[in-house]
Amino acid sequence: MSKITAVRARNIEIPLDVTTALSSRVVRARHYGIVEVEADDGHCGIGFCYVGSGGGSIFSQIVHDLLAPVLLGQDSFRVEGLWAEMYQETLLQGRTGTVMRAISALDVALWDRNARAAGLPLYKLLGSMRTDKVPAYASGGYYVAGKTPKHLADEMESYVKAGFTAVKMKVGKEDLRGEEARIAAVRERIGSDAILMLDANNAWSDLPTAARFVRMYEKYDPYFIEEPFSPDDIENHARLAGATSVLVATGEIEAGRWRFRELIDAGAAVILQTDACVCGGITEFRRIAALAAGHGLTLCPHWFHDLHAHLVAATPNAQYVEYFPDDQVLNFRRLVSKQVTAEKGHILLTQDAGLGFVFEAAAVEKYAGGPWSERRLAR
Q1: Which residues are catalytic, by number?
Q2: Do 335 and 362 contact (CB within 8 A), yes or no?
Q3: What value does the mean pLDDT of the chain take?
């Protein structure tokens, strides 16, 4: 038995260097929650999540007041049991949102801690399909003031020249003519062989509008349209999926296997973008992946390539890691001690134990919204 002796949490706020827009909102800073879980064998694991564009202090309070008491004194290898107990303890406060993200971060930390104790990379502890590299797509194409279709095409072409066979851009902010100018410029520049993915970030609220845009996109041969509607509008996701040849993808902010079952049963998506830092951690990610596999569906995890490279390596029906080439949008990269290596459209898998990196202490201190919130096992 490896007894959990300390649980720590901290809030992080990292401003974006350049104000950046999605289809329906503007982002000026990223708020993250980070955790550490330590046991009496001396090994410590780390976990994290994206909290949003504000309200980061909620995260640490959830960990300190609700979840740390569940973990302290427990066997760190009893991951399934601890997940169930954390979930049960927070039924009235959570089941989704920041509570589930806090559970996710702690679950990741448990898996990381246990992999470090075993001396194995995380993907090997999980039972890997791949042991050298995993396929990735380059994610970018955000809206920034002064960014023309030519500038967007330059960006996407640079990813293809770097060896990526698949790239993703944002859509849905401009009118029909403006959106067509953007995608036309990109498709012309990257060529017909490159896979082009589109991310609408909940751009549309009704089916006729969404269908009008997606019908225009069809001639540019996109691989999928991501989050066309609010995540709660499952019915319109399903209707759009039946009205277009473009695959529908969603699920990046969904939590729990039950919600994913709703998406699957409704036929709302054939590509699930399950995020282990949102859905309930690695433990719940694996359940969702198995559910999807039973229905012949694919996972393309959202965000946090540092973590999801491990999960894609260990998940038979996971297709791509979403890779962010720089730290402008995924500025969490500034907090970690070692960056993943991307080569010819793949992420090379680490051979180091656990996640393969730790938090960079100086960066954490620079961006932290306060000190570590810690609970320790009483002696």
Answers
A1: 170, 302
A2: no
A3: 96
